[in-house]
Amino acid sequence: MELTLTEKEAKSLIERIGSRLGYDYTHSPMFPKNRNDVCVIVHTTENGSTYGYDTVYLVWKEPSGAVEYKEIKNSRATKDYIHIKSVKVSKNGSVSVKFGSGGSYSGVPWSESMKVAIKGGKAEISKAVPETFAEKANQKMMEVVESHKHIHPLYKPTVVKEFVIEEKLKIAAFVLFEQIDTDRGSGHGEGWLGDQFRYSLWLIKNSRNPKELFEDHAYIRPRTKSDLIGTRGRDCTLKNLRINKSAIRVLHLKGDEVETQKWAELTFEI
Q1: 195, 179 in Cβ contact below 8 A?
Q2: How far is CA 58 from CA 39, 76, 79, 86, 92, in A?
Q3: E strand intervals along 105-246
Q4: 8 A C-beta contact, residue 149 and residue 162
Q5: What is the pLDDT of residues 104-143, one digit of tens each?
Q6: pTM, two decimal places
Q7: Domain locations along the chain
């Protein structure tokens, strides 16, 4: 007898087990063609103001009639919205799921493909190898974002500010932004020194892991000069990232005080 998993059954299960922060939503499931016993579904968890993330689940019905699930991806570290692109079932019964994001919070558009083998009420997940250098580079950028996250109510999120991918050269570069400290007591305060930000420049070449080429970090107050140092601090921004065959170039602010800093170019040989 053919098993049928209804949309109501799938959504009810995920609504029951999905994480909650008060403003949560379970999206409609996506079923593969010619199969109605398995689907993929996204659950959005949000607090309505400052934090939220998506979780992707595989849901299926066992021969016993039991409805089972497996979490296959979440965006807790980045807060990116996740969209399901396709769900397919191969001849051997494994489920291939392709999903991705526009990088709404991380700053990196990305996509991933996973295969899920269902057997005996359990699901085993294997990650598909990226098909292009760009896909691989995007995934590696996301790994850096996730490994550099900082949890603090006054910190700005870790994001990729700029990136350049040269598919033919198998080279990518990106600028990572982080907040690593603050002496402000509230979102409206200034503190003695303000917020400490860090900008770093990274290189991805061929199949190698990302390599940090340069970093700069400095304190800066949001609005007014500090009585302690007589300035707002220093801006460590990196911007206008460019790549050619032999070098990576990026602009940074030269000088020790934000009031007098000027843009200058940094060059790194590839």
Answers
A1: yes
A2: 6, 18, 20, 13, 17
A3: 110-119, 122-127, 159-166, 171-182, 195-205, 211-220, 238-243
A4: no
A5: 899 999 999 999 998 888 889 998 888 899 999 999 999 9
A6: 0.83
A7: 7-127, 133-269
